[in-house]
Design goal:
Elements lengths: L23 E6 L3 E4 L5 E4 L4 E6 L3 E8 L2 E8 H9 L3 E4 L1
Antiparallel strand pairs: 1-4, 1-7, 2-3, 4-5, 5-6
Length: about 90
């Protein structure tokens, strides 16, 4: 009989957001955000946009509406933490 080892807990990076993987929240952009999604083009989100957040292990999945179109991107947590630290993004309670 083969022994089954229990699954190890998922490693995730603790962020300034105070969220755990799978948690959801709303946030607001306070100043223009610019980031590059993977190898793609530079993405900008303008001030006062409402964001929907979903925490992943190493990133924050961000969704918003732009010109009536749904948009989303996964932002590495290190970069998202910087947006929080600088006040560019404020998580709404």
């Amino acid at each position: 009989m083969n022994a089954v080892t229990p699954a190890s807990p998922i490693d995730y990076t603790q962020g300034q957001d105070g969220m755990a993987p799978g948690d959801r929240a709303r946030a607001r952009v306070r100043s223009r955000l610019e980031f590059r999604a993977g190898d793609g083009p530079l993405i900008a989100i303008e001030p006062d946009y409402a964001l929907e957040l979903e925490r992943a292990e190493q990133s924050m999945v961000v969704s918003w509406q732009e010109d009536g179109q749904p948009m989303n991107a996964a932002i590495p947590l290190v970069e998202f933490n910087e947006f929080i630290d600088t006040g560019k993004v404020v998580i709404e309670v």
